[in-house]
Design goal:
By secondary structure, the protein is an alpha/beta fold. The protein is built from eleven helices and ten strands. Helix 2 (23-30) crosses helix 3 (34-48).
Length: 299
């Protein structure tokens, strides 16, 4: 019967009987009667249309077909047992979860708060992977993800954690050298570009100064792909960086950078928590989501 499988119970019985070379010992291991073992072996031999054992007064011996068949069946059963054990272990160890998140979210916000996370959810262990842009769970082993995406109701399997509110930050020394007393003064300083969203500065300046893009003459310094890179450049006196407010909060609190005039800008993006449906009810996922929401929004 091409393409079909032998009875799986009969295969398991054959593997034990062939390993033990005894139907009685196989019966004890499988917790069945010897007659049940014999019946399963007969069923498999009928399916294969050839004998697997030679039965004689001196004992049970594998036929040539049985000797050829046993290694492959043993390996297959071992793989099934291993895969099953791994899946069961993963299901019961829901406190060990893989999180795929943006580098800036991890470096500037989550990693500095791992002690707080451990205090809140002691049993939770995260394996963190970095990524950016749209996320597809079919192409990843992650249990959850965090992404910065345009505000929308159409993102699959997602919950908005927090809207992106950008703040302009600058090193105190640069601010002393060239004070910023009104929004237009921002243009006197070099601006640090965000290479994957180059429109950010013009949108920000239009919002806070009221100037149209053609009326601006910004001076751009280096460009950076990620917010954590821009923030570090601002710490190093390279210019003004645009960074999400919650990511800049530690540096602002430490006085490493300053947000002149307390200006901020809602960019139309947001940080989303993504989780596939089959993980949404996992206790560790629900606890982590709740902790994120509380920490990010002061709930």
């Amino acid at each position: 019967m091409p393409g079909s499988l032998p009875p799986l119970n009969a295969l398991r019985t054959f593997e034990v009987a062939a390993r033990r070379l005894s139907f009685s010992r196989a019966a004890r291991e499988l917790c069945v009667t010897q007659g049940a073992v014999s019946k399963q072996i007969q069923l498999l031999e009928q399916y294969l249309e050839q004998p697997l054992f030679d039965r004689s007064p001196s004992g049970l011996v594998l036929t040539e077909a049985g000797r050829q068949y046993l290694p492959a069946i043993s390996q297959a059963i071992e793989k099934i047992q291993s895969a099953t054990a791994q899946l069961q272990q993963r299901a019961h160890e829901s406190s060990s979860l893989t999180l795929n998140l943006t580098p800036s979210f991890s470096n500037l916000w989550l990693i500095p708060r791992l002690d707080a996370l451990r205090e809140a959810i002691p049993e939770l262990k995260l394996a963190m992977l970095s990524g950016d842009g749209e996320f597809n769970f079919r192409d990843s082993e992650a249990d959850m993800a965090i992404r910065c995406l345009p505000l929308s109701l159409s993102h699959e399997h997602s919950v908005l954690l927090r809207e992106e509110e950008l703040v302009a930050v600058i090193h105190p020394d640069l601010l002393r050298e060239m004070p910023i007393e009104k929004p237009i003064d921002l243009l006197q300083h070099p601006l640090l570009q965000h290479t994957t969203r180059p429109q950010l500065w013009r949108q920000f300046l239009n919002e806070v100064t009221g100037l149209e893009p053609r009326e601006m003459q910004p001076r751009y310094n280096h460009g950076f792909e990620h917010f954590y890179m821009s923030l570090e450049a601002a710490r190093q006196r390279q210019g003004i960086a645009l960074v999400p407010d919650f990511m800049a909060s530690d540096a602002l609190a430490a006085g490493e950078v300053i947000n002149p005039l307390g200006i901020s800008y809602h960019s139309g993006y947001g940080f989303y928590f993504l989780v596939p449906p089959y993980r949404s009810r996992t206790p560790g996922v629900q606890q982590f989501h709740g902790w994120l929401s509380q920490q990010l929004n002061g709930e």
